[in-house]
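Quality-control log, excerpt.
Job 1 of 2 completed; input and output follow.
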Amino acid sequence: MNAASGKTRSLGWVQECPRRLMVGFHVPDYDQVPEYRDCERDYGAPGILSAFDAKHFARELRKAYVQAFWFYSKCHRGNAYYPSKVGHVHSAMGGRDFFGELCEACLSEDIVPLCVYEFSDLRMPKDHPDWCHRIPSGNASDTDTTDAIEGSRIGGPCLNGPYGEFVLEQTREVLKEYPVKGYYIDFLGLFGMENWICPCCGDAYRKSFGQDFTGTANMSHDEFVRYIRWWYGQNDQYAKRVRRLVEDLRSDVLFTHNFHGYADCPNMQRMDFASANCDFVTGDLFHLRAGMLQMSWKIRGYATLSRRLPADVLLDGMTCVNGDFSTAKALATYKAELWTARSLNVGTTASVVMDIDGGFNQHIIELVKQIYAAQEPYEPWLRNMQALAHVGIVRSHDSLEFRPGAETDLAGRIAPHAQDFAGWCQVLVATHQLWDLVPSHLLTPEHLRRFDVLILPSVSCMSHAECAAVRAWLTAGGTLIASGETSLYDPDGNLQDDFQLADVFGALFVEDVSPERSYAKIEDAALAPEHAWVDGTLAMDGGQLAVTASDSAEVLGTIHGNPGIRMVNVLVRRREPALLRHRVGAGTCTYFAGAVGRQYRRCGQANILTVLSRLLDQAMGAKAAVALDAPTSVELFAHTQKGQPHMVVNLVNIFAGLSRSDGRVILGPTPGVMSVVRHDEYQESPRLSQVVVRFREDPGRSIQRVYLAPSQGTELPLEREGNEVLVTVRDLGEHAMLVAEYEN
């Protein structure tokens, strides 16, 4: 098939086609599973790819309201699904061109055909070991090769050598012959980060460092930082090579790669690189592996990083836990994922795994049909979106990767920033804030103008430029909340004599955390819980930093601790402040000496949520465009539409999100068997009988009516309190969309 044939679409398919699906073509060839012949003979198992029917597949996707379809030209098993001249062609196709058949079937159903290319390749270590990293030690059999963190730590093909050229050649083959409109590379990056042997990368390493690579175990901290920055640079340079090739071959094709950059330790991509080298940012979201909370902040990150076009997120239709790739997700859980993404102007890619016979799980397709059919009528209110966010929270790669200690335990260590960040995100969801993620490379004066409030959750490693941008934004009238060791290290993880933002915090660093400083007594009446039975003393497991307050700072809470007397449970007041407020120019900074978000994430105490909720209320004042009176299961989103005199509010209610489980994957008792922290799904969330939405009216711009989409006739009664308009949703299931129209 020639790429110029068939129907054509503009690059606008990313905006016009937000309902997508990806099929996982990870089907082994007979030489990879020779024992499968016995299953066919002894048990009547179907032949590999014997039931593949591209036309049937495309028809089913059209019935499921799918607008664009991602499918593999080559899978991670190393098998091409088109007649490649350079790679292994799946023998079970019997001379057919499955990739070409799918392109034609998509065009016949008015579905946009899109290509996925798997960079990882399980054939290469056997067929071309000289093209691959070799891992000197370790057992890869227990590694989940579908997981970005684990998969990046096994031996794999090297992008610096012949395999890198092989990938480019297969890219040429596909783009010259097939009318796809998108090119997506999965697992793009170097493999085996901690320890590898590779002549190609070895040459590049020697050229950069003047010595051989011998693993990270014996590196000094400075050497480790230089190495990780080099590592990211290799991945980034190659991604740019692929993108340039795509642009040269086909100007109508958009390039992206799976963003595997949200780990709490070094991984394959950095946020700034992904944002720069993709036409739009996309990535997978195994939320039942990673937890409901990560669904919230990761999707916001995709939206922020995708600067050119709306981002895309892969929402797997199956649960993907314990090796289960066939059980469809619960309906309410999947609706919550979809509406979280769409409320943030992120396109959704549902997914299904190809069965070994070339068929697919109809239950998962039916699930996709349910959620896409329900979402489709809302599309008029999801075009030309401009998401509203008042609060920004910073996610810092440097703080995750380069704070001292990162080099000693790459896979298992969780930096203080990661824990504090996650807890603050949970608070933002629970208190119904309009918020967004701020990657640290976007700590610039221009980007910060978007926010009224900025949270720095133990952002340990900061540059002078980042600190200057925060200081200037604060001085101009912003409200800053910071915690723990924020700005105590430079971008490379070098400890400074004091906080770089000491003048902002009104606090001087004295000493690192100590368990003797294990409680923060809130003494400010406006922040402390008001109920007699709720303690205003916040437990801080692991302790807090010792700081002294500047003369211009106001102490709102002090550190208490147990003096360590044997068999005596008593708290004594210490000299150090636990909570400070400091005015800087026209702005205000509140600083916690402890990682209060980390404590809330770990233990979930209600008194911590109360204090932080009140702090956020004070910070926002009357600035919030919309607020919500609802249980913590409801997440709030709002956006405007270009040229439209209204505000759109989405409410996403998912009771599985109450705990916001982290869903951390752990090794089970049997090698190779994975288990997870329990995460309950809901087929239908319990309905809420009353949720109150509060719209703030600006002077000279009043709200005329509020209705429930997609039926414009479903108007809600308005109640006015000062400059607020209150509406009540009487029956909230998993999702509701409200549209507030303003008078012209």
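Job 2 of 2 completed; input and output follow.
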Amino acid sequence: MGSLRTKGKSTVVWLLMGMLLLGLGGFGVTSFSGSSTAAIGAVGDTSVGTDDYLRAIQSEMQAFSAQTGQPVTAETARALGVPQSAQARLFTAAALEDEARQLGLSVGDEAVARQIVAAPGFQTPSGQFDRARYTDLLRREGLSEAEFEGDVRMDEARLILQRAVVGGVTGAETMRDRTAGWLLERRDIAWDELTAADLPAPVATPDEATLTAWHQANADRFTAPETRKITYVWLTPEMLEASVTLDEAALRDLYQQRIDEFQQPERRMVERLVFNDEAAATAAKARIDAGQSSFEQEANLRGLELTDIDLGEMAEGDLGAAGAAVFALDQPGVVGPFMTDLGPTLFSMNAILEPANITYEQAVPDLRAEAAADRARRVIEEQAPQFEDLLAGGATLEDMPGATPMQIGSIDYSADTPSEGIAAYQAFRERARALTAEDFPQLYQLDDGGVFALRLDSLVPPALIPFDQVRDRVLEDWTQAETGRLLKSLGEDRRMALESDAPAPAPADGAAAVPAPAATLVPVAGLERDGAIEGVPGDVVSHAFRLKEPGEIAVVEAENRVFLVRLDRIIPADLTVDEAQRVVDGVGNRLTESLQADLFDAYARALQVSHGVTLNQSALNAANARIQ
């Protein structure tokens, strides 16, 4: 194989551009760096650098953390398959780059400029390209404009390949219409819940032999989980806050540094939706004004979620030409379209934020608490190497409180341990679950800047809790199960009685509903597939949509409750109305995207086979060891 070609730091470029171009949402501006570290592999003459691989993993970890609101550790990332996902994306991108280079695909300067100007990372809050921000971000990432623009040019070339492969592929209309019809079908049903009060006699009290047998037969319900007896030492910023000293001048400096937080003009919470042309934006605004659609629905039709278009808190001056109209609203609403650098745009105002005018005296309690916590974190960071040296030198956990500010404790840790104290920290819970008797205590980091070390003292395996300790639980469990059994039997009796009394079912076209027989069933008209009945589990609604013919009755057990549900009428979807047409379009788009994704995946795999894939396992192993 010839010399490997590499290019600039495009994982960084991808982050700066904020684009999703390749792999139907799986890539972005992604080229491959020629750093001094070994490449983890290559496709043809295009290598995949270690730094790019690690940056891609870090990006996915940050994205997952943003979605869940929880920090993602290296262990969690590995369990979720993040390294494999990042590796697959990068090798696919490398295959496309190698193919594009061999074919001589490229784009002109105008296309490159258009992508850069439209990149959110280089824009002001009002959507205008900021040349100074562009230059500064590239400088901070160690990229020249020529390198960056070369990466964008290559990404555009890869996008040409993707469009050539999937262009013209659409989902079948028959499948689209049948799926939309299934989604929009409505039903008239009737239901009733059976309770213990409906039983002809109270549930009998079981004898001890029955309860003992139930305890044994359902041992999994009365078994204590594996318990790990753990000794630990820890130190958190909160433990040190009272002992750290704070400088008054530093607090005043902190107040001035954050003056924009304490002294703010009136602001609005704003979302921005950009359209390809003014006619589309005007039509969307008309639908919203007429109550036929909502701002969120219009965003969804364009393949966007509200989080994708949220601008956050905006001052009037941040919104350019739209500022006056947005700030003229005295309640949430939508204005526009306004012409911005991105195109015709609608703005949705969701909340009014009053001006902030917090004096230093008002802010100082919070500033003092934050500064104390920050100072305590720095103290722990400075002392952590000493703690590590002591543990490495043979100090036991019991020695640590005398030699350091760390505090010692013990815990019987299991899957049932409540999230409180040290067990409230995800880092501790993960280490506690993986801990073995052979592990020597070492220092680990907590999410708030604290540290801890732990030792497994003993392991208590799962064991059946003696009957006399859980007799009340056994009685409650048996009674609930017996009540459910009797109610299901009663339900079957009532179902057969109702079916024998039921009149002929209504025709499927919904001309007339089936009248309810003499029973206590509660009618519900026009129930949608994703609808809900107040106080009734969702499984009951789901089961109602599994019934085949009007007049059919089912006994449904859901959330330890028993229901009768009868199908009275099937109301077919009318796909000609505007609201249904939007669903049809959405289903069609999803089917098309699925087909395009499958086709693109097959093409990318074929490219990797034809160009040849090499994997540097030792470099990959070394890179995986650096994930943190």
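Post-run check on job 2. The chain has 23 helices and 19 strands.
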